[in-house]
Amino acid sequence: MTDATAFLLDFTTSETRHGINPANTKPNPPVPISTQDDLVKAVNAARVAFNGWSKTTWDVRRKALLAWADAVDANADGFAKTLTMEQGKPLSQSSMELGKATEWIRGLSSIEITDNVLEETKDRKIIQRYTPLGVVGAIVPWNYPVLLAVVKIVSAVYTGNSVIVKPSPFTPYCDLKLVELATRFFPPGVVQCLSGDDSLGPMITEHPGIDKISFTGSTATGKLVMASCAKTLKRVTLELGGNDPAIVCEDVDIDAIIPQIGILSYLCSSQTCMMIKRLYVHEKIYDDFLKKLVAFVKTLKVGEGTEPDVFFGPIQNQMQFEKAKELLSTISTEKLKAALGGSVEPSSGYFIHPTIIDNPPESSRVVREEPFAPILPVMKWSNEDDVIKCANGLETGLSSSVWSKDLERATRIADQMQSGSVWVNSHFDLLPTASFGGHKQSGIGVEGGLGGLLEYCNSQTQWLKIKDDTGHEME
Ligand code: NAD
């Protein structure tokens, strides 16, 4: 038994399944397959719990969340090993995700939500207030199973809801443990986790006892989730796929930004929603930039996430691995030029070595599709309007970045980006107080910040008549 498996409880249901360690394709421990019956029981428990939890104060909820954050921190080592075992990312990146998760528990629960007095006269008072929705279904993907589950759990329970978490079948282990820890600090039924197979997600979105779905995953699945939620008019927040452009101007300090751009294109083997996935470099510096980027990426080690100094772990699952290999095959079918990588080497896991495609046409699949694997297209640009048009030319609009020493110029370009987040001289910076979300087909609504929390609330406008129609004060 490894350290990571020892960390897990013995979760049981009559039928079980297991995940796969993507670095070596060995089976991970058994996990439950929750049934429709389990879901009904969980929803009933969540509805009962909601009655009490929704009446607690912000302070009570914050204290429970902070105690949970401390418990997660105290188990950080076990979580990091388990995350690497199930997701594949290197231990250093697993630890980073754990650190971010507890930062987000503390940060989100420090945001104040106050009643908004819209009018107060001697005759009447009008107040806009925010009330919890009920039961939230939190559907989580496999790329950041800890951080994304945490954002949904905190947003739900801090605003007075109960929550049922559904991890991806590919990465159930850390989410089960996160919720097992949470049950020590919240009343029964406030935070629950149901792990299952592919049938469980649709059961949750269909269930009439669930009031909101917070979903993170692919755009294709997001559309199915929204259609299913429409039947009972559930509230939905959809955080979906992206294909982030980064525009690099000719005035940058190439040597200084190459390591940043290299890391921000390939973190988690590019299985990150908000990663640089289309890199537009000004033609005046293109050749030098590409040569230095290739040299830098070559220094980043590929291997099992448990090995020291590894940067590129495996692709998380076989389906995604097959998709990535198929996309790599377009190098020959579309006559593209690989400046680095481009082929798959035999190994015991789902490894794709980092690949850089040298100036592919805008119409090529490596530019138009989200690879979700370390395959980066780098394109030449010369005209500002043209590059903005290319950057905005897809149906996705999750995030983007502009790199230049000239902040006026960079801001002018950033202002024209059609994306939920845009960074100047960075990418993938996140803060609990700053909302993120997608434009166009990258999503609906936001998570994080005050805006994200309010998506877990109903808005209620209260009209208080202080004097009756004869002018007498109400008692
Ligand atoms: P996915 O859509 O395949 O699955 C996401 C979750 O939905 C899983 O838990 C899955 O079991 C569940 N699910 C699948 N079918 C369902 C259905 N019909 N009804 C309800 N639930 C269902 O996505 P994935 O492959 O796990 O994640 C990768 C994608 O997620 C990428 O496109 C990535 O860009 C996107 N993503 C977006 C963000 C963001 O914040 N915008 C963050 C992370 C990942």
From TrEMBL:
It is an enzyme of class 1 (oxidoreductase). Residues 15-461 form the Aldehyde dehydrogenase domain. InterPro entries: Ald_DH/histidinol_DH, Ald_DH_C, Ald_DH_CS_GLU, Ald_DH_N, Aldehyde_DH_dom, LUC3-like. The keyword Ribonucleoprotein does not apply. Its EC number is 1.2.1.3. The active site is at E239. One of its GO terms (molecular function) is aldehyde dehydrogenase (NAD+) activity. PROSITE patterns: ALDEHYDE_DEHYDR_GLU. The keyword Oxidoreductase applies. It catalyses: an aldehyde + NAD(+) + H2O = a carboxylate + NADH + 2 H(+). Keywords: Oxidoreductase. Belongs to the aldehyde dehydrogenase family. This is aldehyde dehydrogenase (NAD(+)). It comes from Penicillium bovifimosum.
